């Protein structure tokens, strides 16, 4: 491919590249219904119809690791496990990868961040996702794509872009870093908590719901996002920022939005709130 997409790509542009052997499209549809649920609706939807050539990646089976205490509801996978997933999906070194889902691109953003932190910059998210594709009446495929396994990519995650545990988060805050929580305001303030055993937020964190990155189902313009994140960062460089959410999924939406806005460099607290509250003795804040 001549053009390379590293943050977002729109539906017409992606449609024009269908059939390119250097393009791999990944359907990441999933439903976060209740704590611990293993969703099968997304994979069923993919089988019923998908962007031509799209393979499927399941959030819990392919984009997460085994559950262990303190690692949150969607643990970060090991490098070897993720490399095996890429091989099975037919993602070879140098390929252009485009991810999409049918909600607000949070699951697609999770794959985007996995690949980015694994060292692959040729990955983008379909802006507007499945809804944008269907709204334009672009081609839909109902047969399962045949994809040859790709050579396994040997590699490791960039540990400078990941905070693996609560102690690392506390060191980040103690050093003057900013922790940005992507959950909805009511969950951040501790007014409700539908998934985790305790409500509230990490003391010292600030709130920006990831839904604020969107307008009418699409990401806001790069300029608008830059202005909004600059206001939230309040003088912090992107490299001084870590993002979190409930389980390390929707926080990736912030990482994508920041990169699209030219504010790349933030870290992910991978276990996020579900990892923080795994220890009942850990301090929790409520309110603004």
Written overview of the protein:
The strands form three sheets. The chain has a five-stranded parallel sheet. A five-stranded parallel sheet has the order 6-12-11-7-8. The relative contact order is 0.16. The longest helix has 12 residues. The chain has eleven helices and twelve strands. The chain is 30% helix and 13% strand. The chain folds into two domains: 128 residues, Rhodanese-like domain (Oxidized Rhodanese, domain 1, 3-Layer(aba) Sandwich), CATH 3.40.250.10; 118 residues, Rhodanese-like domain (Oxidized Rhodanese, domain 1, 3-Layer(aba) Sandwich), CATH 3.40.250.10. β4, α5 and β5 form a beta-alpha-beta unit. With 288 residues, it is an alpha/beta fold.
What descriptive keywords fit this protein?
288 residues; alpha/beta; Oxidized Rhodanese, domain 1; 2 domains; five-stranded parallel beta sheet; 12 strands; globular
Q: What is the CATH T-level topology of the largest domain? A: Oxidized Rhodanese, domain 1
Termini gap: 47 Å
Radius of gyration: 18 Å
Mean pLDDT value: 95
| Main beta sheet | 5 strands, parallel
> Which superfamily, in CATH terms, is the homologous superfamily of the largest domain?
Rhodanese-like domain
Order of helices and strands: EHEHEHHEHEHEHEHEEEHEHEH
According to CATH, what is the class of the largest domain? Alpha Beta
CATH-scheme architecture of the largest domain: 3-Layer(aba) Sandwich
């Amino acid at each position: 491919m001549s053009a390379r997409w590293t943050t977002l790509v729109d539906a017409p542009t992606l449609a024009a590249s269908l059939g390119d052997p250097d393009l791999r499209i990944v359907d990441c549809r999933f439903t976060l219904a209740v704590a611990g649920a293993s969703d099968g609706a997304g994979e069923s939807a993919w089988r019923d119809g998908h962007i031509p050539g799209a393979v499927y990646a399941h959030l819990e089976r392919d984009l997460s690791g085994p559950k262990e205490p303190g690692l949150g509801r969607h643990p970060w996978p090991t490098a070897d496990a993720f490399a095996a997933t890429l091989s099975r999906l037919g993602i070879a070194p140098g390929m252009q990868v485009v991810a999409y889902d049918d909600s607000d691109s949070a699951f697609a953003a999770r794959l985007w961040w996995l690949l980015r932190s694994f060292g692959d910059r040729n990955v983008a998210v379909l802006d507007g996702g499945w809804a944008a594709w269907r709204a334009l009446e672009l081609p839909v495929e109902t047969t399962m794509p045949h994809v040859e396994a790709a050579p396994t990519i040997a590699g490791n995650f960039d540990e400078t872009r990941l905070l693996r545990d609560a102690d690392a988060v506390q060191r980040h805050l103690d050093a003057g870093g900013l922790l940005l929580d992507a959950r909805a305001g009511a969950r951040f303030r501790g007014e409700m908590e539908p998934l985790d055993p305790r409500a509230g937020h990490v003391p010292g964190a600030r709130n920006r719901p990831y839904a604020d990155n969107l307008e009418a189902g699409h990401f806001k313009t790069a300029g608008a996002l830059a202005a909004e994140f600059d206001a939230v960062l309040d003088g912090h460089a992107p490299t001084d920022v870590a993002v979190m959410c409930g389980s390390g999924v929707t926080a990736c939406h912030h990482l994508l939005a920041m990169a699209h806005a030219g504010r790349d460099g933030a870290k992910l607290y991978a276990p996020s709130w579900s990892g923080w509250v795994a220890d009942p003795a850990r301090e929790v804040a409520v309110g603004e």
